[in-house]
Amino acid sequence: MLSEDDLATIKKQLLTERERILTASDKTIEDSINQNPENSQDFADQSSFESDRNFELRMRDRERKLLAKIDEALERIEKGNFGICSSCGGQIGIKRLIARPVVTLCIQCKTLQEKKEKNF
């Protein structure tokens, strides 16, 4: 069972990561508005800009998905079912939750899931 201190620490960690993602997203939007690659006549510069922008957008998409998981974890904390495996209903280890607070499976269920995925 998670202590109140553990939950508070994890919640703070989730909120900090959520804020970091939102700040990075705002910066990406601001940068894309302020940058205009068409001003450059050099095709290499334009190509490099497009490559960088595509990479940045892929990163933001991954972070958007993480943001949804963070919001779900925060909701589980509020509902009182944080740290419960969604598959078997057992407790997820505190070390696992601290390392990756958005997890929804205990290590045994996650290992089993990965083995099943490998077989497909």
CATH class: Mainly Alpha
Number of structural domains: 1
* Cα-atom radius of gyration: 20 Å
Sheet with most strands:
none
CATH architecture type: Up-down Bundle
Secondary structure: helix percent: over 70%
CATH homologous superfamily, by name?
DksA, coiled-coil domain
Structural class: mainly alpha
Mean of pLDDT = 89
Separate helix tally: 4
Which fold does the CATH topology refer to?
Four Helix Bundle (Hemerythrin (Met), subunit A)
Q: What's the helix-strand series?
A: HHHH
How much strand?
under 5%
* Shape by Cα distribution: elongated
The CA-CA distance between the termini, in Å, is: 35 Å
Total strand count, please?
A: 0
Low-confidence stretches: none
Overview of the structural elements:
- This protein has helices spanning 4-34, 43-79, 94-99, 107-118.
- The protein has 120 residues and is mainly α.
- It has one domain: Up-down Bundle (Four Helix Bundle (Hemerythrin (Met), subunit A)), CATH 1.20.120.910.
- Helix 1 runs antiparallel to helix 2.
- The longest helix is centred in the middle third of the chain and has 37 residues, at 43-79.
- The mean pLDDT is 89.
Can you give me a brief rundown of this structure?
This protein is mainly α. The chain is built from four helices and no strands.
